[in-house]
């Protein structure tokens, strides 16, 4: 993994997706989330990466199966890849980007109040450490189209004017 040198220019917002495998349309009937272990399994064992791609995961109390779990409490800020290293969360454009992922699929779910409060706290903390980093959604910086971080989360973030002013979603 490439060392980051502590040089960051942006924060990129993601959702975990976490589709419901039991439904053909991929949508969730139950609140689904993901634990760090499940995320590590997806990124390391399935994708073959050397570590979790995101620097932070903000959990929602549920695992991939939609079961409540103490491993991923609602609103917990869990550390994924160390900030000593460049992440793996935006295709070919990871350098300088801190990857923050909210657990859930916000194409059809909504983030919890605690997840949103924790996101604001994390943004504040990162900006105190690294300067006034702009926040952009994955879909605004990826080369290929992606729904990430999901339309419901996008709507909330735009409504609260939390993205950098140049972010536009067509
Ligand atoms: Zn993403």
How would you characterize this protein structure?
The chain has 170 residues and is an alpha/beta fold. The chain has a single domain, classed as Peptidoglycan recognition protein-like (Lysozyme-like). Helix content is 25%, strand content 12%. The protein is built from four helices and five strands, in the order E-H-E-E-E-H-E-H-H. Strands 3-2-4-1-5 form a five-stranded mixed sheet. It is globular, with a radius of gyration of 15 Å. The mean pLDDT is 92. The protein binds zinc ion (ZN). The site of zinc ion has 3 residues, from loops.
CATH-defined fold name: Lysozyme-like
Q: Please give the largest β-sheet.
A: 5 strands, mixed
Total count of helical runs of at least 4 residues: 4
Please tell me how large the radius of gyration is.
15 Å
Widest β-sheet, arrangement of strands: 3-2-4-1-5
Specify the overall morphology: globular
For CATH, the homologous superfamily is named as Peptidoglycan recognition protein-like
The ligands found in this model are:
zinc ion
* Average pLDDT taken over every residue: 92
Quote the distance from N terminus to C terminus: 34 Å
Secondary-structure class: alpha/beta
Strand fraction: 5-15%
Model regions low in confidence, pLDDT < 50 over at least 5 residues: none
Please write the CATH class name.
Alpha Beta
Helicity level, as a percent range? Answer: 10-25%
């Amino acid at each position: 993994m490439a060392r980051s040198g502590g040089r960051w220019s942006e924060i990129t917002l993601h959702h975990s997706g976490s589709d419901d495998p039991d439904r053909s349309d991929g949508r969730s009937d139950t609140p689904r989330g993901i634990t760090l272990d499940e995320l590590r399994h997806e990124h390391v064992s399935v994708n073959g990466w050397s570590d979790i791609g995101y620097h932070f995961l903000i959990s929602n109390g549920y695992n991939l199966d939609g079961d409540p779990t103490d491993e991923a409490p609602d609103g917990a800020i869990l550390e994924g890849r160390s900030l000593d290293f460049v992440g793996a969360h935006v295709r070919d454009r990871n350098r300088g980007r801190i990857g923050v992922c909210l657990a859930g699929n916000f194409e059809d779910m909504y983030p919890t109040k605690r997840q949103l409060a924790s996101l604001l706290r994390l943004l504040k903390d990162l900006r105190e450490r690294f300067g006034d980093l702009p926040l952009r959604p994955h879909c605004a910086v990826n080369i290929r189209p992606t729904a990430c971080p999901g339309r419901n989360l996008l709507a909330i973030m735009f409504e609260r004017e939390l993205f950098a002013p140049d972010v536009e979603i067509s």
